[in-house]
Design a protein that fits this description.
This protein is α+β, with helices and mostly antiparallel strands. It has 2 domains: 3-155, Immunoglobulin-like (Sandwich); 165-444, Aminopeptidase (3-Layer(aba) Sandwich). The protein has 18 helices and 23 strands. Helix 10 (361-369) packs across helix 12 (424-444). Bound molecules: zinc ion (ZN).
């Protein structure tokens, strides 16, 4: 056993470790341009690389440990490239067919001289059924290496490793000493920490107590008042790094000095588990932990041997439930999603209408704060299939549990707007918005006192006053409708008095007299051409025109047309030996 196998546990997993992929039969020292593939690092995932031609490589995602069906996450490097070398990389064994690669999502790339992740342009990505791969859907990336000395890294999404989290938490903890504690509530099978960050104080402030003891009513209130708690869980699945970025954004926001962060820290308690599955994240798994368990399907049957993290969280919940002065309100489980755009929530359904209505309140607050929130993608259900998820298994009584899903790809701000890819910053912003909406909610129900020093009057004063529109200020060209009408009304109704030399005159001088002498144009419906509003032209509806005459193929042509099925058969015989693809091909596994 080599040294690396013992130290990082990668060797036995089947990740490629600096493998030079060359044409069959060749050996000896690698020449420039014979690509060297490597995935033997933290969060790395690539199981196999086949040389098809010097231009084309078939790549295989390494399935999760002990869970062969989970195959989506990939993260590998390529080096020993030639200047301006062009390649096609086919990822041929993805475990899910319908993903965002179908539409706009693209993988990411970075190199040693350009360490920031960049999305590969969509025109270089092809997610298609390949006859050479038994008709299965493969992801082809066309890529040109532009610098010989660089190491190129390709990944399904910007990765967020266990080490990065540990580093971030260590720095965060130092800054947040005054109001937060960090502890390890359990150890994973591979002896990694499962961190729990507690923000806020379970005790009510002494100052508040003194103030409230003034009246009998407030005395009763103090006795009844419970400290509100929110539990946030992130990164249950290794292949969903957006979850970690969102969690980081949330933690960083709570560290800040903003009024909302202060209000949250002072009035409620947030229990945050930033990484529930450190083993899976470290190993580069898509969903499972080391033993092949999908943690978001095992909450209802967790054992201390196989799921130490889940048992620890269950213990925490029991402890919270036993305390009389504490009330757990929400469990928020943050995930990434490979099939949908934007941000949305999955919740539970209840037979009691009032209970159900209350359950739908927090998502409303989230929707008001989070950019690209997609209410149409939010579902509330009680499927038996998902009985092992956190949101189904954990809540008891009045606790509301949700799965918040953030797209691995991007979002549209309007239904038909442009597609905007998510960046690390955009994810951390979602975390910030999540914290803000929690503040909104608790302010709404009176747990967090209303913001002081901000009145409505002040708001009104700040608003820009609208300048009244004076008719003479308007130039004749200010209204696009008028401009078009004047020019487009057909003769003979075009009046002769219209200013003939309008364009020749200097604009300012011409304005007023022209407006005064401008005659009223009489609108004759028959004479008016389609109105131009903006750049779009309103035309008669195309559906009225029968297009079938233009589409129908003449019968003579049909006769001479070559038989299509014949073509198809001939094409497939070109590849006499189909390339390898994994036989276990599952398309039904859902995200979250
Ligand atoms: Zn997930």
């Amino acid at each position: 056993m080599s040294d690396s196998e013992e130290s990082d546990g990668e060797g036995g997993l089947g990740n490629l470790s600096r493998l030079i992929v060359r044409p069959p039969g060749q050996s000896g020292k690698a020449k420039r341009g014979q690509l060297c593939f490597d995935a033997a690092f933290e969060c790395g995932n690539l199981g196999r690389a086949d040389h098809i031609t010097d231009l084309e490589y078939d790549l295989f995602v390494r399935p999760d440990t002990c869970r062969p069906r989970a195959r989506f996450w990939f993260n590998f490097t390529i080096e020993n490239v030639k200047q301006d070398q062009r390649v096609i990389l086919n990822i041929v064994n993805l475990g899910k067919e319908t993903t965002l690669f179908d539409t706009d999502m693209t993988p990411l790339v970075r190199s040693t001289s350009r360490p920031k992740w960049q999305r590969i342009p969509r025109r270089l990505i092809f997610y298609h059924r390949s006859l050479a791969h038994r008709g299965r859907k493969i992801l082809s990336i066309a890529f040109a290496f532009d610098r010989e000395e660089d190491v190129y890294q390709f990944s399904a999404a910007a990765s967020y490793s266990y080490s990065r989290l540990q580093k971030h938490l260590a720095a965060w903890e130092k800054k947040a000493q005054a109001f937060a504690t960090r502890q390890s509530i359990a150890q994973t099978t591979q002896k990694r920490r499962i961190d729990l960050v507690t923000i806020g104080d379970y005790n009510f402030k002494e100052k508040d107590k003194d103030f409230k003891e003034e009246t009998i009513v407030s005395k009763i209130k103090t006795a009844e008042q419970k400290k509100r708690v929110v539990l946030i869980i992130a990164r249950t699945h290794g292949g969903e790094p957006p979850s970690s970025f969102v969690c980081q954004g949330l933690l960083d926001f709570l560290l800040g000095s903003s009024e909302k962060a202060l209000a949250l820290r002072n009035n409620i308690v947030l229990e945050v588990i930033p990484m529930l599955n450190p083993d899976g994240v470290f190993l580069g798994n898509q969903r499972s932990d080391l033993l092949g368990g999908d943690l978001n399907r095992c909450w209802n049957r967790a054992t201390s041997y196989a799921h130490p993290a889940l048992v620890a969280v269950n213990d925490l919940l029991k402890k919270l439930a036993s305390e009389k002065t504490v009330q757990l309100d929400f469990i928020i489980d943050i995930h990434g999603d490979i099939s949908h755009e934007g941000v949305f929530v999955r919740g539970n359904s209840y037979d009691d209408v009032y209970r159900f209505e209350r359950h739908a309140v927090l998502p409303k607050f989230l929707g008001a704060r989070i950019e690209a929130w997609r209410p149409e993608a939010c579902f509330y259900n009680a499927d038996s299939v998902l009985a092992g998820t956190a949101r189904r298994a954990l809540p008891t009584g009045s606790i509301d549990a949700y799965t918040v899903l953030v797209s691995l790809g991007g979002r549209r701000l309007a239904p038909r707007g442009p597609y905007i890819h998510y960046t690390e910053d955009a994810y951390t912003k979602i975390g910030k918005s999540l914290a803000k909406s929690l503040c909104d909610y608790y302010r709404h129900i009176g747990i967090i006192p209303p913001r002081v020093g901000r009145s409505k009057k002040k708001d009104r004063g700040r608003r820009r006053r609208r300048r009244p529109v004076v008719e003479r200020d308007r130039s004749p060209s200010s209204s696009p409708e008028r401009r078009v009408l004047a020019g487009r009304v057909l003769s003979p109704s075009l009046p002769k008095v219209s200013p003939p030399a309008l364009q020749a005159l200097p604009a300012r001088l011409s304005r007023r007299p022209v407006l005064k002498s401008r005659p009223r144009t009489v609108a004759h419906a028959d004479n008016i051409l389609p109105l131009i509003t903006g750049t779009a032209v309103k035309t008669p509806r195309l559906a009225v025109v029968d297009m079938s005459a233009y589409i129908q193929t003449p019968k003579e042509f049909v006769k001479h047309r070559p038989d299509k099925s014949h073509l198809r058969v001939r094409r497939s015989t070109r590849f006499s030996r189909p390339r390898f693809t994994s036989d276990e091909y599952d398309t039904r596994e859902s995200d979250s």
